[in-house]
Design brief:
The chain has a single domain, classed as UDP N-Acetylglucosamine Acyltransferase, domain 1, CATH 2.160.10.10. It has three helices and 19 strands. It is about 20% helix and about 25% strand. The relative contact order is 0.11.
């Protein structure tokens, strides 16, 4: 039987993490209301809060980064408009990764096998050259292989192999990605 009271009493965040969450919330207007082309400013703010951000990373002002200190974004990656990076666990983006508008990376869940439903924080890894398309969902603990594409509105709850293209719910491979020069 689910024990809601025990779950609510559980300490899910350290006091340091709670403090950083409050400070990040207070800094949100500086991020959210910055002009669209001010990518350098948003990189700076994210780095101030512990994110590891490579060069020429474009994070759009309407993107939501839940816990910046759990984000790593490689060179030339992009996090698009209204993307949600729910990074209770570590979210790592390789170089030249694209997270399209309204995509959702969810690195948090609960252990449904225990009555107190404890919080889990499985990491997400999006390898270099991958593209998470519009409205796609990547679940906790999932690795997206190099060059893979998670199609629009696809739901990736299992690892996606390198250079594969997946669509649907649950995501399934429809073909391999080929790069032409």
């Amino acid at each position: 039987m689910l024990n809601v009271e025990q779950n609510r009493r559980a300490r899910k965040y350290s006091s340091g993490e709670l403090t950083r969450r409050v400070l990040w919330t207070l800094a949100q207007p500086l991020f959210r209301f910055s002009p669209r082309p001010c990518f350098g400013w948003r990189r700076f703010l994210l780095r101030c809060f512990g994110a590891k951000i490579g060069r020429s990373v474009h994070v759009y002002p309407s993107a939501t980064i839940y816990l910046p200190w759990n984000l790593e974004a490689g060179d030339e990656s992009a996090i698009g408009e209204h993307a949600l990076i729910y990074n209770l666990g570590r979210v790592t983006l390789g170089a030249r990764v694209t997270i399209s508008h309204r995509a959702h990376l969810c690195a948090g869940t609960h252990d449904h096998t225990k009555p107190d439903f404890p919080l889990l924080r499985p990491p997400i890894m999006i390898s270099s050259e991958a593209w998470i398309c519009a409205d796609a969902f990547v679940g906790p603990g999932v690795t997206i292989g190099e060059g893979a594409i998670v199609g629009a509105r696809a739901v990736a709850v299992k690892d996606v192999g390198p250079w594969s293209i997946v669509i649907g719910n649950p995501a399934r491979e429809i073909k391999r990605r080929e790069i032409t020069q």
